[in-house]
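Two quick folds needed for the group meeting slides. Do the first one here.
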Amino acid sequence: MELQGAGYFLFLFVVVVAHSALAARWRMPLLLGASLVFYSFSSVAYLGLFLVVSTVNYLVVLKLSRSEDGRVRSIVFGAVVALDLLVLAFFKYWSQLMQAWLDHAALSALQSGAFEIAAPLGISYFTFQMIACATDAYRRDWAPDGKWSDFTLFSVFFPQITSGPIPRASRLLPQLSGGARASAEDREIGLRLIAYGLFKKFVVANRLNDYVTEIFAAPDPGSLLHYSTLPTLVGCIYNVLNLYADFSSYVDIAMGSARLLGIRLDPNFDRPFTSTSITELWRRWHMTLSFWLRDYLFMPLLIRIGELGSAGVVIALIVTFAICGVWHGASWTFLCFGVSQGVAMSLEALTRRWRNRRIKQAPPRLIKLTAWVYTMGFFALSEVFFRASNLSNAGAVYSRLFHVEMIQSAAELFAHKGPFDFSLGLVAVALWFAIARAFRRESAVSTPVFALICALLVMFLGHLGNGRFIYAGF
């Protein structure tokens, strides 16, 4: 059982009140206890696993920061990274690999879920935190100066353990161990972030998700439902908006929850839909993951193969984003999604000088508009792989997009859910622009008014049936 919905906010309220009432020296123990209790709602057994792995990593970073023996440091570092990756791989990929082997061996008698293992909540983000800590300690970019309890709290801090953002120890640990109380500004910004996150989740993401699910669903045998180019295109656009609204809403709630405790988490999005290249988009989209990939995978790989020149950059980009794709799940669709990002960024890197020479005479606004259309179009098309259940499903969506077919009826455009539901989706997107502007204009729209507006919109326009976040599955 996970602590979700109203239960989470009741839990958060109790923790925030207690945190503000306690003396500074008791605030860190309170947050540690609250985080352990929070995770125990998911699984006590997996909480024990996290504590063991966290303790091993804590002992390793102490060893790495204190040892001067290069050989010992390399062995210890390699061992702990291997351990972290083994834990991640086992829980994320064991069931899928065993099922694939059973299918290949035609052992139908064993295909009853006997090998299925539920992945611990937040295992990917927890593992990335641990690898980053070990790597920073090995590089001597960071050294632990706190106790085991501080490091453990960093490992399982409850607002972000489920789906990030992925914190860096050098920035988050001092805040957790400092025992500072939230200021009035912290509380105001925290409430504003939570209100905005709830609006994006229930009014925007959940509304769009129904349409996207219908468009991307594999048709049942004998079904008369069919979608031509226009509804499929709308579904692809909604798919990107749905993913962004859903994931960023979780991040807003996580950041807002932490801010109510006087703690600032790293931002995870920076208006990604204003990007004019795929390279720029990944600097603005899931930023903590992008920077993690850059610092702990792409750059080390590029350093090793740097003598290959441009070919080395291409290889490093494609390998990095292929791993990023498979991190989301062991499937061909996720691999294709990741590789497509790496290929796009490689082409952008290889053609940068040529493009600068060729287009410098064109009107700047036209250049920017063309670049934006290319970026959004490519990203929307590549996200088909992210959403599709398999390659066949993705191929069917692409076929409907590129083999242009006129729409047969209004019902088809409405995804056979009726004009009212379709209109609510359009209204949700339009409201998103207005609410986003109000969110940024703190001086014009006070936090109580903004929270009230979001609450009313959630109450009257929200689709409250699904409180599960997409990235909680990764």
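Then this one, please, same format:
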Amino acid sequence: MFSKSGSYNLHIPEHYMQSKYYTFSPSPLCKSELVKTDTELALLLAKAHRLIGILEGMSRFIPNINIIESMLIKREAVFSCRIDGFEESFEEAIKTSEEGNKMVSYSQGYIKAVNYGKEKLPENHFTNQFLCEIHKNLMADKNDEEAGQFRKTQTFFGPRVFTESFPDYNPPAPDEMGKALIDFEKYINCNDEVDVLTKAALIHYQFETIHPFISGNGKLGRILNGLFISEKKILSRQLLCISKYLWLNKIEYFDRLKEVQRFGNFEQWVKFFVKALISAAEDSINIINRLLALREKTVAKIMTLGKLSRTATLLLEYLEKKPIIDIKTASETLNLSFNTVSKSVESLREIGILKKRNDSIRYRYFAYEEYLNILDDGRM
């Protein structure tokens, strides 16, 4: 059985007790026009490019953009994990990503994988080996023997029951997957005239359809979004949280992928994906503007502290990296005395910048609440 996007292949197991089943092998994404750019898509692409261009411009002039990028990567990690059913708060993602923290979290591997991809992309481009290396970082905390290795067994999503009318999607069989991965590598690295954002949508679809790893494919596919856009010089930093839109529209997200597999309807998928990019760009622009306004307001408050303002300013810079702190760790990190930091923390609490999180006398925690609320959408 064939569609514009690929073919369904019947498998008849040797053992008579096992049911027949279909797998789906996607057709290569060639240079021919898979997607017809109608008026709706043209307008969506124009809007997405404009917003991403604004983000790129902002990233070049904001002094603390490294810190903001780090926070947005954590935010993206939380939503991407939620799509796969792993619930974790933004605060948990912040705590577990700190150096030396031994807690295992769902988002920790995602953050490692994004940072690895950012660091290695200029020298690797998008080889299949590079995908395996990113996957190894993604699954590093799961003690997964399959981490960084393409699967050697069949993965099933649809039932194994033989249905000839219209089979459910199962990814390519391992012996069919090699060719699909070679074609995928060629396509992602080739220079063509396809709009970059359209191509990003097609790459995401193709990777998820090949489903080359035992687990982690969804998260890795979403990591590829940002890395590909960065490699194409559209947005140099990882500032898009596309997973929020995909999580809020999770059912539609999966349905539209299936629509391509079954009927070869690429246009509806690309439009959905570009809408996700638009939403992500608008979200990030709003967050960055709110963070900049908050910083300006906070600095103005700190300037009212007189002699304590110098230490409080150092503490603010620390809070933007770690918005939940304890005095002991902060004093060690800033190389200041415990009493000096304690006084600054108390001053910031009195003027409404910090809030105490617990009633413990020995291990008190304080949070930069307004900052957290902006990044965490008011505790989603």
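Slide caption for protein two: The beta strands are 2-3, 6-11, 21-26, 324-326, 355-356, 365-367.
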